Amino acid sequence: xxxxxxxxxxxxxxxxxxxxxxxxxxxxxxxxxxxxxxxxxxxxxxxxxxxxxxxxxxxxxxxxxxxxxxxxxxxxxxxxxxxxxxxxxxxxxxxxxxxxxxxxxxxxxxxxxxxxxxxxxxxxxxxxxxxxxxxxxxxxxxxxxxxxxxxxxxxxxxxxxxxxxxxxxxxxxxxxxxxxxxxxxxxxxxxxxxxxxxxxxxxxxxxxxxxxxxxxxxxxxxxxxxxxxxxxxxxxxxxxxxxxxxxxxxxxxxxxxxxxxxxxxxxxxxxxxxxxxxxxxxxxxxxxxxxxxxxxxxxxxxxxxxxxxxxxxxxxxxxxxxxxxxxxxxxxxxxxxxxxxxxxxxxxxxxxxxxxxxxxxxxxxxxxxxxxxxxxxxxxxxxxx
Length: 385
Ligand SMILES: Cc1cc2nc3c(=O)[nH]c(=O)nc-3n(C[C@H](O)[C@H](O)[C@H](O)COP(=O)(O)OP(=O)(O)OC[C@H]3O[C@@H](n4cnc5c(N)ncnc54)[C@H](O)[C@@H]3O)c2cc1C
Fold this sequence. Notes:
FAD/NAD(P)-binding domain; globular; 11 helices; binds flavin-adenine dinucleotide; alpha/beta; 15 strands; eight-stranded mixed β-sheet; seven-stranded mixed β-sheet
């Protein structure tokens, strides 16, 4: 027999937790289904940009101290160029530990959570969605609800079932994150991004919880392990990364930028796709802000639709359009020059620098962007898409 809920939310990341919180506040009986045990590991730097901090404080309250990393404050995105120049883009962000952060969000949502439960398939009818799950040693669990919110991340199997051809039309990149218990000369409290396309389209490093964390992505034809080796050699040669040490963690995943190809998917009549599953992911791989925002919008759309007897998917697509536009804007060069609602406000970083430095840094940035494949952003073979 199926368990009955108003809303089932697949995925216990920021999008799923934000959706669940809105459902609970709207009086819906909701269930989060998460395939991993919480806190689950997630390859992520754990940076909350200003928009994420605002959404968290508005809907969840103050972040508990044990969820914040050390250091907890993040001053800037520091871009390093092969010319030796650097550009600090102010962030005013926070650094969190992703596993505990997501667990806290899910618990704070105030709905039932079924951990270690994987959604396997679903059937949508005119007035309900039936989701078949497995948990433990393959025990079956069937849940029926009036709305399904798919917040199952960038490689969403639900989106793959809705739009099977989309997966093959995206350019996928392998992301790899390693934390090393070795010192590094990189300044703490900054996210160091290396505009060195010969290493990887997006190599970055930072100091977190006493470790030096290195991240790379690799396009098809390259390997993330090889990119990581090139990156650690660069950091040892020029940025004071120590030799040896113990590897504290290693996480990987696959990522794709849907925005550069317009391949968003927001679902159907009773299936609302939120977060990275929908394709909402900003440049530099920033996705928590749009996951929190779209999850919230999905939960609110579910509440309103069930109250007013309307089709949830229609309401959701109307309301999430601003997020889709925001994401598209982040990939347009002009938005950075105009300083228009961009996550990484390069203009503020350039302000106050002598004119000659500004010109050189703009040239450095344009050179890096061009190496990735032109104004629409990274392209396959040249960068993360
Ligand atoms: C290396 C790297 C660094 C990043 N750094 C940052 C950063 O610093 N700041 C930032 O804002 N963004 C960052 N991002 C992006 C960010 O991590 C994601 O965009 C964000 O986590 C998306 O949230 P989400 O809730 O949509 O999905 P996720 O956080 O991916 O959550 C999806 C959840 O769904 C679960 N799930 C999947 N399938 C099923 C299923 N069938 N049944 C049940 N559960 C399922 C998964 O286990 C997972 O817990 C980074 C990404 C990478 C790869």
